Amino acid sequence: MKQPVLITLRGTQAYGREAPETIELTTRGTMTGRNGKFAISYEETELTGNQGVTTTFLVLNPRRVVLTREGAVQSKMVFEEGVKDESFYELGFGSLLIGIYAHRVASELSEAGGRLVIDYSVEIEQSMSSRNNYEITVTPVEEKPCEEKTAP
Question: What average pLDDT does this structure show over 3-32?
Answer without folding.
Answer: 93
